[in-house]
């Protein structure tokens, strides 16, 4: 079951210094490692405190863009061309380390695109953050002549770091990073735990999406669905007959997302499931993760398939049964492996915490110690 450290205030959080192994050995950053971390200087992320100058951020970004032109585009796991004029082409990219589906969604009429739920590579043992996965996405965008108009987050992920801020810079610095408006609640919960200034997060994201809000993707219309339950800020995106569900519903043999994070709620998750299952049967529900090792990775199931087969919420499952099952299941789940690094970066839209006076960046890990003695 997910629990935060009970003695965060009295037992000082231990820090993970985000520092690459190669800091003293590489005059030129190896491909895919953030130049800032190799050089031990702020950026290319704008620091959460705003300490990175625009000039340095632009300079690093342009250096990286030159490098990206030489990087081969990521090869989509699957390409889903649309046969319906109101539905986008969907390119799916599976990030194996966290079993995450990343999506590049394209209006075939205009080549405008959105990127949904991107991943920043992170090795917790070494503290190295790298960008090979994100660079592949940027290269895919550039090689295919796409114009990215929004970087979308379905929610503040607890199992991987978002590449949203890195992508924004690589794509020219003016592509808005968007998330559900109830991210404020998530930030209020987690900022104090990680010693982050809540006031510095007022404009961490560029747009805060409301339930039923609409925006255009080229000639297509995108409808925002608030899908709380896994997290309070969680949203999905309906674009034609393609629905991007993040961590709400999963493929039928996986079921549904956990609902025990702070602000999560099994009751509201059930309601969100019903909202998705009430969509037309041929709509595709593209999921945020796929975990089974005994079959090929799968990124979507139709609404009709989910109604018939979802192991947690198929048609006929009553709310009481689901809610009890979900709570019982969550009570025995462990915390996600990258929980703490993910949250303190993701509630800042993919920015790292401020660097110290020596340019070092640390991520905090709250610890629990209840042995009855003081160490
Ligand atoms: Fe999640």
UniProtKB/TrEMBL annotation:
Keywords: Hydrolase, Metal-binding. Residues 46-56 have a biased composition (Low complexity). The keyword Metal-binding applies. CDD domains: POD-like_MBL-fold. The keyword Iron-sulfur does not apply. It comes from the Eukaryota. Residues 1-56 are annotated as: Disordered. Pfam families: Lactamase_B. It comes from Lentinus tigrinus ALCF2SS1-6. GO terms for molecular function: hydrolase activity; metal ion binding; sulfur dioxygenase activity. This is Metallo-hydrolase/oxidoreductase. InterPro entries: Metallo-B-lactamas (IPR001279), Mito_Persulfide_Diox (IPR051682), POD-like_MBL-fold (IPR044528), RibonucZ/Hydroxyglut_hydro (IPR036866). One of its GO terms (biological process) is glutathione metabolic process.
């Amino acid at each position: 079951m997910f629990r935060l450290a009970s003695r965060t205030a009295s037992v000082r959080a231990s820090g993970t210094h985000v520092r690459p192994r190669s800091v003293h050995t590489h005059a030129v950053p190896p491909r895919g490692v953030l130049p800032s971390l190799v050089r031990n200087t702020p950026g290319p992320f704008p620091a959460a405190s705003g300490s990175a100058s625009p000039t340095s951020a632009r300079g690093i970004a342009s250096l990286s863009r030159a490098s990206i032109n030489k990087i081969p585009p990521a090869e989509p796991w699957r390409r889903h061309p649309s046969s319906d004029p109101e539905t986008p082409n969907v390119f799916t990219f599976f990030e194996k380390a966290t079993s995450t589906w990343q999506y590049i969604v394209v209006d075939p009429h205009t080549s405008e695109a959105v990127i949904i739920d991107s991943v920043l590579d992170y090795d917790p043992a070494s503290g190295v953050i790298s960008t090979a996965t994100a660079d592949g996405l940027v290269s895919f965008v550039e090689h295919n002549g796409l114009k990215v108009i929004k970087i979308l987050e379905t929610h503040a992920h607890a199992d991987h770091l978002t590449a949203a801020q890195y992508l924004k810079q690589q794509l020219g610095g003016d592509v808005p990073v968007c998330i559900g408006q109830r991210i404020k609640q998530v930030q209020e919960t987690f900022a104090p735990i990680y010693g982050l200034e809540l006031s510095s997060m007022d404009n961490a994201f560029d747009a805060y999406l409301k339930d039923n809000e609409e925006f255009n993707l080229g000639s297509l219309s995108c409808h925002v669905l608030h899908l709380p339950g896994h997290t309070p800020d969680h949203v999905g995106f309906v674009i034609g007959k393609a629905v991007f569900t993040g961590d709400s519903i999963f493929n039928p043999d996986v079921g549904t997302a956990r609902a025990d994070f702070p602000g999560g709620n099994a009751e509201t998750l059930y309601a969100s499931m019903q909202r998705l299952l009430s969509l037309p049967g041929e709509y595709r529900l593209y999921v945020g993760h796929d975990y089974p090792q005994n079959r090929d990775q799968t990124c979507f199931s139709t609404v009709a398939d989910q109604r018939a087969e979802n192991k947690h919420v198929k048609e006929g499952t009553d709310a009481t049964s689901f809610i009890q099952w979900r709570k019982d299941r969550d009570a025995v789940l462990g915390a996600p492996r990258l929980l703490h690094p993910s949250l303190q970066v993701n509630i800042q839209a993919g920015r790292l915490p401020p660097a110290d006076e020596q340019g070092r960046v640390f991520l905090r890990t709250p610890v629990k110690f209840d042995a009855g003695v003081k160490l």
